[in-house]
Specification:
Elements lengths: L1 H14 L18 H7 L2 H35 L2 H16 L2 H12 L4 H8 L7 H4 L1 H26 L3 H9 L4 H12 L1 H16 L3 H6 L11 H11 L3 H28 L2
Helix pairs in contact: 2-14, 3-8, 3-11, 4-8, 5-8, 8-11, 9-10, 11-14, 13-14
Length: 268
């Protein structure tokens, strides 16, 4: 742990406080909090923070979490062939390599892609989705790719709910929405919290999917923090500044984790 995890993290923390560059520099020097100060004064960094939060909210907290729960609930009532086919299709999207999934969704959303072909067949207007709505396109792509994890978590959680509890509520006159809100969700709240925490942390670090689809563009309209960090560290050769951004991303992930863990403790 010290050699392969704690050591590299400590070294990166040190680099974040230097002006280390990949090229054109004989030696680096300690600059204190200059990199962090520069980040918060950088409009591109602030834009990346905002887009990261939008991407995480849309694709993880709303998209993957809600769709995963809906699929898990529907599959409990479906026939075995439907469950098998649905599970295979959803899990297939999850196990695909990130780069392959990115190319598939790029082909789906591009101007001459599958989505516009379907809209044209329906006699509806299409558009260049990766240009007009890039952050929504990559958010949808992440939902498509990552919903399987939430579905599996919630399928396991729902299977632990005693059938006699829901049957008793149904006999007492509770409709489907009331059973979901007052029985199902409270009984799987710990699974919801755990799933949200894991999905959020994974979504915050998504790089390859967005890079393949848009490379953060057009302009910087889909440039989340991982892409901004990569641009600063490896395209502009400012390793110190890029590492400082990476530490700030780590802080964002830690804050999300603390919130979820506090909510879980509050429910005990």
């Amino acid at each position: 742990m010290a050699l392969f995890l704690a050591g590299p993290i400590a070294y990166c923390a040190y680099i974040a406080f230097t002006d280390l560059q990949l090229t054109g520099q004989a030696e680096s020097s300690f600059v204190g909090f200059d990199n962090f100060t520069a980040a918060f004064k950088d409009d591109a960094f602030l834009n990346a923070v905002w887009l990261t939060l939008v991407f995480t909210f849309l694709s993880s907290i709303v998209g993957q979490n809600t769709l995963g729960l809906a699929l898990a609930a529907l599959m409990r009532r479906a026939s075995k062939p439907v469950r098998t086919v649905t599970g295979a299709v959803v899990v297939a999207a999850w196990v695909l390599p990130e780069v392959v999934a990115g190319f598939l969704l790029y082909a789906f959303f591009r101007k001459e892609g599958t989505l516009n072909a379907i809209l044209d067949w329906l006699q509806l207007p299409g558009q260049n989705w990766l240009f007009t709505l890039p952050i929504l396109a990559v958010s949808f792509a992440n939902v498509w790719r990552g919903t399987a994890f939430s579905m599996l978590v919630y399928s396991a959680a729902l299977s632990e709910i005693p059938t006699e509890v829901t049957e008793s509520a149904e006999v007492d006159g509770a409709n489907a929405w009331q059973r979901l809100w007052h029985i199902t969700l409270p009984m799987i709240r710990r699974s919801i919290g755990t799933n949200l925490m894991l999905n959020t942390l994974q979504t915050l670090s998504v790089f390859g999917l967005i890079w393949v689809m848009t490379r953060g563009g057009p302009g910087n309209r889909s440039q989340t923090l991982p892409l901004f960090m990569y641009e600063q560290a490896f395209q502009k050769s400012m390793i110190g500044y890029g590492t400082a951004v990476a530490l700030l991303l780590l802080v964002v992930g830690s804050l999300f984790s603390l919130v979820y863990m506090r909510l879980l403790r509050a429910e005990d």
